[in-house]
Structure formats: C-alpha cells, structure tokens
Amino acid sequence: MRRILIAGNWKMNGSSSSTQTLLEGLKQGMGEVKHADVAVCAPFIYLPQVADLLNGSAIAWGAQNLSEHSAGAFTGEISASMLNDFNCKYAIIGHSERRSLYGESDELVAEKFAVALGAGLCPIICIGELLEEREANQTEAVVGRQLDAVIKRNGIEALAKGVIAYEPVWAIGTGKTASPEQAQDVHAFIRQRVAAQDASVAEKIQILYGGSMKPSNAQQLLAMQDVDGGLIGGASLKAEDFLGICTAAPA
Ligand code: PGA
Fold first, then answer.
1. Residue 83 is assigned to a structural domain of this protein
2. Parts of the chain with a pLDDT under 50
3. Which residue ranges have their beta carbon within 6 Å of ligand 1?
C-alpha cells in the first residue's frame, strides 16, 4: 500500500512573516490529517526559518531545486549539502518552470536526481507534457522520454528512492485541472513503464499529480488508483486550502 504524499511547492512566493503565519496554521491543523504525509518546499532563503518552525512537527520540508555541482565557483547556486545543513528531506527536480524558463534539459535533471540521492535527499522528479504535445497525442512520448532519462542515468532501483510528480504543464497555475481519468491514464502509463523494468519498484514508487489541485478536486484525484498524492502550487500558500487537500486523502 502506497502512502499518500501531499507536497507544497511555494515557488517564489512569501515573506518571513507569511511563512510564519502559514506554518503555524499548518501545524495547528495537522491533527486532522490522518492519511497523508505532508511536506512543504520553500524558497531557499526561508529554509532556515522553515526548519526552525517545523522541527519536531509531522511536516517535512524541502527545496525547489538544487545545483548539480557539489561546491565551487557557481554564483547564485545552492548545493545538496547546504540543503542537508537545514535538514531538508525533499528536493523538487526538473519542475516544468525550471525546464522551460531556465533551460534545464532531461540530462541535467537526471544529473540533479543523482546528486540529490547521493546526498540522501528524496528527489521529487517532475515530468509532464505541454498543451500542444497533448493535442498532438505526444503525452506518452514526452513523459516516457523525461522518465527514461532519469532511469538511464540513475538505474531503475535508484528511482524507487525518489518520488515522481506528473504535472501536465497546461494544468499548472492555470486553474485547469486534468480530469481524474486523464491523470489516472498517465499515472498508469508511468507505472507500467517502470514495471517493464522492475515490477517491485513500480509497485512501490509514489506518483503525485500536480496542476491546479485544490480542496474541491483533491478527493476525486486522490481516489484514483495510481495517484499517490499531490504536488501543490497555488493552493499550498494558504493553510486552509493546503490542509483541505491533505485531509482529502483517502484512508
Ligand atoms: P499549481 O502548481 O498547483 O499552482 O497548478 C503546481 C506545480 O507547479 O507544482
């Protein structure tokens, strides 16, 4: 039985004061969350504050990116060991905004996956198609290619130490959500592709859905057989909304 994971991706939002308000709200509501693990992925600069506020709580935390290098002359970058310094559990890797706005290739994303795993972090690897790719019936080709790059670089067993997030790019921040059936179809495809190489890894690996998940649609999405959680952008910025998703996890 795979446990549900609900992870917030705050993106470049917030301030110290809103971080404090949000995390206090989440901590207060966590007693109601029975069937999901919960994590927040904060902007780098707030991670020390997040670590202080969440230490000893049931909420894990992580980063939204990391460098593929371990140290050195890489101005503006943050390494995996720096994330370890602040007890991050997760690092989001290859979010579509990193791929499209910052030119991250499949190979770079696969390398970041390796670096995160090597440091003991749990990478949340994001894959997903653009609208035009879906309309051209290329969803499986795109998602398969993105996944294969990670498996090729890291091996199938390493994949089991991470989490996959299927995020159709057309549903991110647009208010458009994949229907539960659309999400299930792609999640099942992803799991089958993993199973073709290793059935036990496929059975075990969590596949999250991301793209305008909110309290009003979370229950239906999370009820699908191969949807093992959510990666939540906009709705992770308000404690009430995020908790509404966390409590929608099925028993
Ligand atoms: P959204 O973002 O929930 O705001 O659509 C999800 C994500 O980009 O991870």
1. yes
2. none
3. 9, 167, 172-173, 210-213, 231-235
